[in-house]
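2024-03-11 09:14:02 INFO receiving multi-entity request
2024-03-11 09:14:02 INFO entity count = four
2024-03-11 09:14:03 INFO echoing inputs for audit
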Amino acid sequence: MPRPRQPRLTRQLIVETATALIDAEGLPAFSTRRLAAELGVRGPSLYNHFATKDEILDAVADAVTGAVDTSGFASRDWAAALLDWAWSYRRALTAHPNIVPYLAQGPGRRPAALAMADAVYGGLVRAGWPPARATHIGAALRYFVAGSALGSFARGFVEDPELYAAHYPHLRQAHRLAEHQQSVDEGAFALGLDALLYGLAAEYARTVGAVESGRPNG
Amino acid sequence: MPRPRQPRLTRQLIVETATALIDAEGLPAFSTRRLAAELGVRGPSLYNHFATKDEILDAVADAVTGAVDTSGFASRDWAAALLDWAWSYRRALTAHPNIVPYLAQGPGRRPAALAMADAVYGGLVRAGWPPARATHIGAALRYFVAGSALGSFARGFVEDPELYAAHYPHLRQAHRLAEHQQSVDEGAFALGLDALLYGLAAEYARTVGAVESGRPNG
DNA sequence: GTCTATAAGTGGATAGAC
DNA sequence: GTCTATCCACTTATAGAC
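2024-03-11 09:21:47 INFO inference complete, emitting structure
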């Protein structure tokens, strides 16, 4: 026999609505009252499901991180797995850029972030990278992805040619960046990621590969 | 209480105190009242020097960015200049990590950020990089630096061995990251930056260098 | 240029009714 | 499990006295 009336709130519904609210209005605009209003309830009702506001934010951050795909580390060579992971990571964060400053405070105790770190670190070590190097690589990629999701580079420029021409001689075309925001940001990410992986592959060949030559990376 | 002979507030003093306050207590704790208290005045007095709270934050962000050294682009080859710039940029941001989320929203109209973009872009173009590529390189480095300053990777882990051992097999040593936070974060940055520059140098040799062989980069 | 006073509102969170 | 009622510290910003 189902319950006559379903509870209006569930943890999942709260997290989904909180995510949408943060996406739409930003982290500073996110309050328990505002969230409750969005859910059609009053503020205090949320406290039946979460103890504090930060617990809600942690759940949102964990859900965002949970969308990242690390499966490549199980089946592909380390470089291809890093590439797949970085793009998936970037997609997950750029889908919810406003939560990034909160999320980037550190993997902390959030399960999804720890599972991701575990998969990446494990995959790199399995491929032969020394543990300390694997840590550095995972962190470096995290820096790059978080930074790219944090704030669009192109978005920072305004669409007013006059503003830049006067004082910044090389930025004469900068106003055009605003038009091509997405392709500039993605192009910069692609360039940086490719260069990074190129450099890592060179170091791998120089150190790990020289020792375990002939051993497949997967 | 008699009024002081000298004005107690100046824009510079306000910005310096605001920076210290944000460093010490974080962006959410920063309020005009809290700042005024720190300066020994009442909240409204600040509005004689800045029109809004955001104007103060912009001034703080601009001061932080203003500490970045881009002089290498005038005198050194592009790769060495990028390396110097990236480290200087990182030092400036990690000295004030709590302002990074605000600062990273985009270069916007802040003079110091625009001057920095101008110097970097101009230096790269002068070295022979195609304009579109120069934009991507500057943005990619910005992503990496901002991400590295935004949140320490190592800090995210707690110093409790038991917490990770159970569920994340590869993170058995992760609690040790907390001890070596600074060296892990700097090592990850150094590795990523070197790999990135290695990859860029390869592309430069493949494209620009092939066309303008023999031309000095400076 | 700093002050008092105040506007007009939001914040997270709790107690206890139903 | 949601409600009403409530707490009160706190927010940015303005008006006008001195």
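2024-03-11 09:21:48 INFO post-check: Residues 3-4, 7-9, 41-42, 44-45, 48-49 of chain B lie near DNA strand C (CB under 10 Å from a C1').
2024-03-11 09:21:48 INFO post-check: Chain B has eleven helices and no strands.
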